[in-house]
Write a structure and sequence with these properties.
The chain contains 2 helices and 9 strands, in the order H-E-H-E-E-E-E-E-E-E-E. The protein has 217 residues and is mainly beta. The protein has a single domain, classed as Porin (Beta Barrel). It has an 8-stranded antiparallel β-barrel. The radius of gyration is 25 Å and the shape is elongated.
Length: 217
């Protein structure tokens, strides 16, 4: 009787294994890719004006250069159909401003941002071709600032730089041409510290290609 009962249990376990959905090989594995797009910065004109006022200058105008071409390269491992770990390198470009002052002069400033990141990626398949995804993680960015003055404006520290870790997050949509090749459209926000005590957000809107190693062409 015990033997029969055990055999029945084993049979049920085997049936459960056969009937349960298995993980498709296409839902796991290594992948890599690259995106290119436009980055956008929020330049704090009020803080620039306040800093110049503290140094004895009135600001008559500020012209901002708050957009640039940016790109990223990445690689990751998809653990299952709903989750992946992804790391990469990003270059968010260069942003700057020119402030005109009284007494007569100008203050020119720019910042170049690049670094590495590590993200957790949540994936929501919509159908066989489309999926949506969201990401959250850390970025470790290098901020290279550059300042110069003309006329009455003198800059004491023209080339400060800083490296620091901050958070990042984003959302996107992926379209799979095949099991091997896909296309991504993404929007991301990087929290960044510059080299002179400011903290702000850089947004990246990009489009790129993804290649899955081991997939069917």
């Amino acid at each position: 009787m015990k033997l029969a009962r055990r055999a029945g249990m084993l049979g049920l376990a085997a049936f459960a294994l056969i009937a349960s959905p298995s993980v498709d090989a296409a839902d796991t594995g290594w992948y890599g890719g690259g995106n290119i797009g436009q980055s956008r910065a929020n330049i704090d004109d009020a803080r620039i004006t306040s800093g110049l006022l503290g140094a004895g200058f009135a600001t008559t105008s500020i012209n901002d250069d708050d957009r640039d071409t940016a790109y990223k390269l990445y690689g990751g491992y998809q653990l299952n159909r709903n989750f992946a770990i992804e790391g990469g390198y990003f270059d968010l470009g260069r942003f700057g401003f020119t402030a005109t002052t009284v007494p007569a002069g100008t203050l020119n400033g720019s910042i170049r941002l690049k670094g590495v990141n590590l993200d957790a990626v949540g994936i929501l398949p919509i159908n066989e071709k489309f999926s949506a995804f969201g990401r959250a993680g850390l970025n470790y960015a290098e901020a290279e600032d550059s300042f110069s003055g003309t006329g009455a404006v003198t800059v004491l520290n023209p080339d400060p730089s800083k490296r620091e870790a901050n958070y990042k997050f984003g959302v996107g949509i992926q379209y799979n041409f095949t099991e091997t090749l896909g296309m991504r459209a993404e929007g991301e926000r990087y929290r960044i510290n510059d080299a002179v005590g400011n903290r702000g957000d850089i947004d990246l809107f990009s489009l790129g290609l993804l290649y899955r190693f081991g997939g069917k062409k």
